[in-house]
Amino acid sequence: MKSKIIILLSLCYILTFVNCTTPTRVTVRGRVTCDGKPLKFIFIKLVEFIEHARDRVLEEGYTTSKGAFYFQDEMQNFTGYNIKVKLWHKCYNKQFFEKRCYYKFTPDLPFGKITQKPGKDLIYFDLKEIKLSTKGRSGERDCSNIGNLFS
């Protein structure tokens, strides 16, 4: 009986280790609008969330003139809960903070479409349209990250 338990535990360990070393290609795409108009050239990051540590940036860039973005990168140890999209916008800013501060917004990711190929897993997230509004705050004000947005 003990030998069966040891064999099962060893098998679980091996399968877990093999799965963690398989790289996963993560693709995220979407479009950002403010009151129905595309948000042009806003800063976006695709990050791997690491608990009790600084997030690891996988990709970063800006939306197109139509508000669209597309990121793709590979990561190890993909769980589905450890990836986030963060964007900085001025859709709501009023008066004093208008020129100095951005709002940081982290949309919820939908369930990803999973495709498995030998030696590599592919995960595809389609955020479709992220609708922000000037009538309500979309995110939290972030005045500390301004220098990092354009560096």
Write up this protein.
The protein has helices at residues 2-21, 146-149; strands at 24-34, 37-38, 43-48, 56-62, 68-75, 83-89, 102-105, 113-117, 120-132, 140-142. The relative contact order is 0.22. The strands form two sheets. Strands 1, 2, 5, 8 and 9 form a five-stranded mixed β-sheet that branches. By secondary structure, it is of the alpha+beta class. The longest helix has 20 residues, at 2-21. The protein contains two helices and ten strands, in the order αββββββββββα. The protein has one domain (23-149): Sandwich (Immunoglobulin-like). The model has no long low-confidence stretch (mean pLDDT 79).
Short structural description:
The chain contains 2 helices and 10 strands, in the order αββββββββββα. With 151 residues, the protein is an alpha+beta fold.
* Span between termini: 61 Å
The average pLDDT value, as a whole number, equals 79
Main CATH class: Mainly Beta
Unreliably modeled segments: none
Proportion of strand residues? 35-45%
The overall strand count is 10
Rg, Cα atoms, Å = 19 Å
Total domain units: 1
Structural class designation: alpha+beta
Q: Largest sheet at a glance?
A: 5 strands, mixed
* Large-scale geometry: elongated
CATH architecture: Sandwich
What is the CATH topology?
Immunoglobulin-like
**What is the count of DSSP helices, taking H or I runs of 4+ residues?**
2
Order of helices and strands: HEEEEEEEEEEH
